[in-house]
Write a structure and sequence with these properties.
This protein is of the alpha/beta class. It is about 30% helix and about 15% strand.
Length: about 475
C-alpha cells in the first residue's frame, strides 16, 4: 500500500494488516489476535451455526470468563441464574468450535485485558480485537487494539478479518516530572478532563513524551485502557526495552531464535521523526495532581484539592445539572472531605500486581475507616497467586480490606458485586456512568493510591498529605 514516506506507528501497523483497500470503502483488515468472553460472544457463535460456518482460525482466538463471574467462592456453582447461563454457554461454545478457554478455576483465568498481556499473548505490531471497549489496553505494547460489537465478533470468527475505516491519528505528549502521589491513572484522568470524554472521537491516539517512556508496562496499560473514555478508537505506545523486558518473562512470548527475530521486527515499531498526526496535544506533568471524577462521565474530573466547576468542556449546563443531581453534589463544592461508603480496587484498569503492591505499601500498619467496605479484586489468578506469595493478602486482612477472587467485579456490576443505590464508591475502574456499579450507585474514579487513602480515612482524601 502506497502512503507517505514518514509514517506514524499506527499507520505502519495498519498498512501491514490491510488485505484489501478501495477508495470510498472500508479496508479489509487482518486480525492477529481475537479475545472473547461470555457476554458478547454467544450471539456471534449462534450466527456461525445458522450460517453453518466454523471459526476460521481458532488458534488465534482466546476465551476467558470474567464479566459475570462471582469473586467469592468460585469453586461453587454461580448463584445468579443469568451469569451462570452465560458462563456455561461460553464453555459449550468453546468446546464446540475448538477455542482455548481459561475458565473459572483455570490457573490462567482472569479479566481478558489482564491475562492477554501477562501471558505474552499480546505482542508488539499485532492487530487485536475483543467484544469489549477496553481492548485499547493492549495498545500499551505497540498494537492496534480496539473493541468491536457482537456482529463484528462473528465477522472475525468467520474470516479472521474486519471491515474498518481507517481512523485519524492523534498524538498526546506528556513531558516533565510527576508530583508526589501522582500515578498513571491520574495522568489519563487529567488528559480526559482537559480534552473531554468526546475529545478524541474518530482518532487513534499515540501517547509519547518523557513521562510515558518512564512508565512501567502496567502503568502504560492503565493509560491505554482509558483511551476509549475520551472517545478514541484506541490508544498505543511504541514498544521499547521496558516492553521487551516485560514480555521476555511471559509464557507465550517467542522463545530462543524466534525471540531474536521478533525483537528485530519490534524495534522498528516507532513513529518516524517527520510523521504527521491529524491532531496533537502536549501536557506538562508537573501540572497534574491526584485526580478524581465528580460527575457521570470520566471527563468530569478535577484535582483532588479543587472544587466542582460550573461547566465542563463539551458538556452543557443541563448535562452538568443532571450529573450533579445524580451524584448528590453541588457546583463549587470541595471534593476533599466528602464521606464515602465503598472502595473498589480492581477492573481491567487497575487490578494488576503493581496496583495491589501500591495499595499494600500505603496501608501497611493502617486500618480502614469504620463502616467502609473495601473490595480488592485481582485481575487474574496469576495476580492473586502472586499477591498471596508476597504476603499482600495478610496486609489487606490486617487493614480490614477484603481480597476477593479474579473477575470484573464491581466495575460494571454484571455479577454479584454491586454498590447499593445512593452509596458513594471510590473506584479504580474506568467508568462512572449512572448505575454502572449498581442501580443508583454513585462512583468517584481515582488511582489505587487515592483509593487506599479514602479507605483509611473514610472520605475523599488528598493522598499527598498522608505520604
Amino acid at each position: 500500500m502506497i502512503g507517505r514516506m514518514s509514517k506514524t506507528l499506527f499507520e505502519k501497523i495498519w498498512e501491514k494488516h490491510v488485505v484489501e483497500s478501495k477508495k470510498g470503502y472500508p479496508d479489509v483488515l487482518y486480525i492477529d489476535r481475537h479475545y472473547i468472553h461470555e457476554v458478547t460472544s454467544p450471539q456471534a457463535f449462534e450466527g456461525l451455526r445458522k450460517r453453518k460456518l466454523k471459526v476460521r482460525r481458532p488458534n488465534q482466538t482466546i476465551a476467558t470468563a470474567d464479566h459475570n463471574v462471582p469473586t467469592l467462592n468460585q469453586h461453587l456453582p454461580i448463584k445468579e441464574k443469568l451469569s451462570r447461563f452465560q458462563v456455561e454457554t461460553l464453555q459449550h461454545n468453546c468446546a464446540e468450535f475448538g477455542i482455548e478457554l481459561f475458565d473459572l478455576g483455570h490457573e490462567k483465568q482472569g479479566i481478558v485485558h489482564v491475562i492477554g498481556p501477562e501471558l505474552g499473548l499480546t505482542l508488539p505490531g499485532m492487530t487485536i480485537v475483543c467484544g469489549d471497549s477496553h481492548t485499547s489496553t493492549h495498545g500499551a505494547f505497540g498494537t492496534i487494539a480496539f473493541g468491536i460489537g457482537t456482529s463484528q465478533v462473528e465477522q472475525v470468527f468467520a474470516t479472521q478479518c474486519l471491515l474498518q475505516y481507517k481512523p485519524k491519528t492523534m498524538k498526546i505528549e506528556i513531558n516533565g516530572d510527576l508530583g508526589k502521589g501522582v500515578v498513571s491513572k491520574d495522568i489519563i484522568l487529567y488528559i480526559i478532563s482537559k480534552i473531554s470524554s468526546s475529545g478524541a472521537t474518530g482518532y487513534f491516539v499515540e501517547y509519547t513524551g518523557s513521562v510515558i517512556r518512564s512508565l512501567t508496562m502496567e502503568a502504560r496499560m492503565t493509560i491505554c485502557n482509558m483511551s476509549i473514555e475520551m472517545g478514541a478508537r484506541g490508544g498505543l505506545i511504541a514498544p521499547d526495552e521496558i516492553t521487551f523486558d516485560y514480555l521476555k518473562k511471559t509464557d507465550h512470548a517467542p522463545k530462543d531464535d524466534d525471540w531474536i527475530n521478533a525483537l528485530k521486527e519490534w524495534k522498528l515499531l516507532k513513529t518516524d521523526k517527520n510523521a504527521d498526526f491529524d491532531k496533537e496535544y502536549v501536557f506538562d506533568a508537573s501540572e497534574i495532581e491526584p485526580m478524581i471524577t465528580y460527575g457521570t462521565n470520566p471527563g468530569m474530573g478535577v484535582g483532588v484539592s479543587q472544587f466542582i466547576p460550573k461547566r465542563v468542556i463539551n458538556s452543557t449546563a443541563l448535562d452538568m445539572e443532571k450529573a450533579l443531581d445524580y451524584m448528590g453534589l453541588q457546583v463549587n463544592q470541595r471534593i476533599q472531605g466528602i464521606k464515602i461508603d465503598y472502595v473498589f480496587i480492581g477492573s481491567c484498569t487497575n487490578s494488576r500486581i503493581e496496583d495491589l503492591r501500591m495499595v499494600a505499601d500505603f496501608v501497611k500498619g493502617k486500618k480502614k475507616a469504620n463502616d467502609i467496605n473495601v473490595w480488592i479484586v485481582p485481575g487474574s489468578k496469576k495476580v492473586e497467586k502472586q499477591a498471596i506469595a508476597e504476603g499482600l493478602d495478610v496486609i489487606f486482612k490486617e487493614a480490614g480490606f477484603e481480597l476477593r477472587q479474579p473477575g470484573c467485579s464491581a466495575c460494571l456490576a454484571m455479577n454479584e458485586d454491586k454498590v447499593p443505590a445512593g452509596k458513594y464508591c471510590v473506584s479504580t475502574s474506568n467508568r462512572n456512568f449512572e448505575g454502572r456499579q449498581g442501580p443508583g450507585s454513585r462512583t468517584f474514579l481515582v488511582s489505587p493510591l487515592t483509593a487506599a487513602a479514602a479507605a483509611v480515612t473514610g472520605e475523599i482524601t488528598d493522598v499527598r498529605e498522608m505520604i
